Amino acid sequence: MSSLPTLHGPTWFLAFREASRYRRTRIGIAVTLLVIALALLGPLIAPYRPDAFVGRPFMPPGGGFLLGTDFRGRDVLSRLLYGGIPVVWMSFAAASIGMVLGVTVGLVAAYSKGWVDEFLMRVMDVFLSIPLIIFVLLFVSLIGTKEWLVVLLVGVAHMPQVARITRGVAADIVEREFVQFAEALSVPRWRILWREILPNITTPLLVEFGIRIVWSIAGIAALSVMGYGIQPPNADWGLMINENRGRIATRPLPVLAPGLCIAIFAFGINMIAEGIAGTISGTSRKSGGEA
Amino acid sequence: MIQATQTEARFAVDVRGLRVELPGGGDIVDDVSFSIRAGEVLGVVGESGSGKTTVGMALLGFARGGARITGGTVHIAGDTSTNMLALDSEKKRLLRGKTVAYVPQDPASALNPSLRIGLQLAEVIEAHEPSTQRAEIERRIEAVMAAVGLPTDKVFLERYPHQLSGGQQQRIGIGMAVILAPKLIVLDEPTTGLDVTTQNKILDVVKKLCREQGIGALHVTHDLSVIANIADQIMVMYSGRVVELGRVETILTDPQHPYTRALLGAVPELRYRTQLTTIPGAAARPANRPSGCFFHPRCPAAEPACKAEPIGFTEVVARHWVRCLNAGSGCGTRPERLPDPAMASGGKPVLDVRALSVSYSNYRVLDGVSFTADRGECLAIVGESGSGKSTLSRALIGLVRQQASTVLFDGTPLAPRARDRSRQQLQAIQYIFQSPHNSLNPRQTVEQLVGLVYDTFHRTDRNRRREAIANVLSQVGLTPETMNVFPDQLSGGERQRVAIARALAADPEILVCDEITSALDVSVRAAIVNLLKELKARRKLTMLFVTHNLALVRNLADRVLVLHKGEVAEIGPVGEVIDRPRHAYTRQLLANALEADLDHRVEAPQPALRA
Predict the structure, then answer these.
(1) Contact B49 A291 (CB under 8 A)
(2) Distance (Å, whole) CA B324 – CA B311
(3) Are the beta carbons of A64 and A127 closer than 8 angstroms?
(4) Residue B323 to residue B260: CA distance in whole angstroms
(5) How far is A241 from A251, CA to CA, in rounded Å?
(6) Under an 8 A CB cutoff, do A4 and B479 touch?
(7) Count of CB atoms within 10 A of residue A283's CB?
(8) CB contact (8 A) between residue B485 and residue A1
(9) Is omega for the bond preceding A131 within 30 degrees of 0, making it cis?
């Protein structure tokens, strides 16, 4: 028994380590880190300012402009290198807000049962019935296009889905005897939620976090494309697609390059989520008990 | 090695040199040889991980989880020419269900919940004999339903599995196994989840079917009393090897292998109290088995020669094989008898339950249960499932909101809900759950698990806390290093020790134990029972021991409370209740209690063949 290796660290870390045995997780981590590195380091290596007019509009690649110029004659490569940060931070932040709100609601609903559960989940259903874009547009048109507002709204839009998932996976755990044991000890309720139940559902929640990031990337990019995200002249991958879509047939690069970056980022996150999901089915497949 | 001498007898199955290997090399079981005559039952006993289920599955041509059957022969129904293991998968498939059938442990999960039972029975026939006429199928279903003791009418066959009781479901499971008149059935702990009364009926059905239809049965179990009641032969397995094989009467009365002897000594007796035998250490996993005899590190009769070379399987007397150099040595076969406890003179009771009633909507689970428990005594609460014994124990620790009663602890009333009780009251009554698998949070280390209880009642610095936790762990026989591991790195017995340590960390006065040994192996259970006895004596603990095992009650308890349909049927000193039961229900419970000897068998084992 004492010869057994002991695993230490928070459960999310263990879940990651378990998942990294799969090749898809490793590919996902590599791709995601690559995109994040591009976004963070890009401004340092960009040849021009993102808002500098350095050439004629829609110049073809070559001659100092590796990816050509955009509709205003700005360097596409420089805008690409600058335009990653908003996408990365906004999608992470929106997904995080969605997770915190959704997990809280889901955990409380699963643990309380009865009318509290019923009430919370019906409220979530109401949220769920409003499409993301409509929901965000409503408030953005009322308050104005602010980055923090877009992040917050996309986060809130994630909440009902996350709450449903959390409630679903926590429903089994709240019936387990170690929860009853804690209740018989009169352990504070928040501590039961936080210390007894939450660590047991970390893995499915990590998968959900990955899915939420991917949705955030897509949602925020869509809002940018529609002109409700980052405002010109700042650079943003979504905004770049919007700005240059007019000449997509003859000059595809200013649209394709940022589009590809968004797709690769989403792909990387998705692969990590897939890998972590693999560990869940992996543990349930393991035959316990006798050899 | 065993020679196949009994060629004139009809064998249901004859297994020689069976070997099942793990994917990474190394074996799960090896050198397994036995035969079962038609109409006979071979009981396979062994602890978790001994390979008994692996042997059972191998008879169906299966190996679990990446393992492979790499050696040996299996001849079925006296067919000496065909080795079943060498058949291609299609031929094996045809054999399964028709010639070799399987009865799983949990019928509830083996039956399809969305198909009517009549259809499920019919499917078995249609799958193997597609040309069978409708009328013939119905006739055979009716016959098999009668054989397993279920109603044969249409209305019953129209039911879904969830509309049947656990016992009825298992009867269906057995019915599905025998409906094609197989030569051999493999039963994998078919009565584990059932009440004793139901268990006995199921065992009777199995026995009768085997005798009448000439079916050989391999009955895998860890319960020696089940084996004693049903088997004609016993095969004892330890760490992937057969250590002893023989007729039931010789093994139970004159076991030769030290492991078998220890195992029998670990089974409590119903008629008197014993000092249960425990086996030190734990069984080795396949990866790190010792050299020579696998049992030698734990064997009281081990000598240097035992660790030198693998031990052969030898026939010590006719039809009785043992894998041991010192067959017949080791601890005595009958453990030391102890007197029943003397009744303490009645002091002020520490727990006084007056008219405890619990109702869930219209259903009354407990109805006016009253009893007292004196300081330092062990009060056993017995009853079948549904008697309300778990509800009673949960009500005491404040998990049942619906209770109406007066429960006095040390003279002061306890609130129905734990959250409304004072810190001292919470500390005084601690609870240990049936399954340590469920009651220990898998995401917390042992230190965190025990620490939760410790922190609830103590405020000390980190070093004092660690010291205190190490201290309670050592009290239950665990090393301080255990602190850093997660529950799934521990064996079942070790986990239950952690659960006990956690309760002790509160420094309680009353320990409520809810069936805490029912999920454990025989020898592990003995160790836990001895530990509880020791703790009770040393810490003056009052114990409420909820169980359905009457022999265990005899071994551990001072007084017994018999619970029947939510009411107290009988309460009294352990010797009196078990030896001179007054209530009809107690008598019925006692009549159904299986004992690990031959005196109480309904039917004698089949006479051994003369060689």
Answers:
(1) yes
(2) 6
(3) no
(4) 11
(5) 12
(6) no
(7) 12
(8) yes
(9) no
pLDDT digits (tens, 9 = 90+) for B205-244: 999 999 988 999 999 988 888 888 899 999 999 989 999 9
Whole-model pTM? 0.82
Which secondary-structure segment (H or E) carries A271?
helix A253-285
In chain A, which residue's Cα lies nearest the Cα of B448? A195
Q: What single string gives the DSSP state of each residue in B138-151?
A: HHHHHHHHHHTT--
Altogether, the residues listed in chain A come to a count of 291
Cα distance between residue B446 and residue B481, in whole Å:
10
Q: What is the ipTM of this complex?
A: 0.79
The enclosing H or E element of B14 equals strand B11-21
* Residue A7 or A122, more confident: A122
Q: Which two three-digit tokens encode residue B72?
A: 């040996």
Chain A CB contacts of B287 below 8 Å: none
Give the pLDDT band of residue A255 (cuts 50, 70, 90).
Answer: confident
Neighbour order of strands in the sheet with B241-247 = B100-103, B184-188, B216-221, B41-45, B233-238, B241-247, B320-322, B314-317
User: Looking only at Cα atoms, what is the longest distance across chain B?
Assistant: 78
Tokens 């009785």 correspond to: B320
**Under 8 Å between Cβ of B506 and B458:** no
State chain A's mean pLDDT as an integer: 84
Q: Which residues have C-beta within 8 Å of that of residue B565, sequence separation ≥ 6?
A: B367, B386, B387, B388
Cα separation, B433 vs A184, in Å, equals 12
Beta carbons within 10 angstroms of residue B288's beta carbon: 8
The residues, any chain, with a CB within 8 Å of residue B559's CB and separated by 6 or more, are B343, B377, B378, B379, B380, B571, B572, B573, B574, B577
The residue whose two tokens read 């290596």 is A45
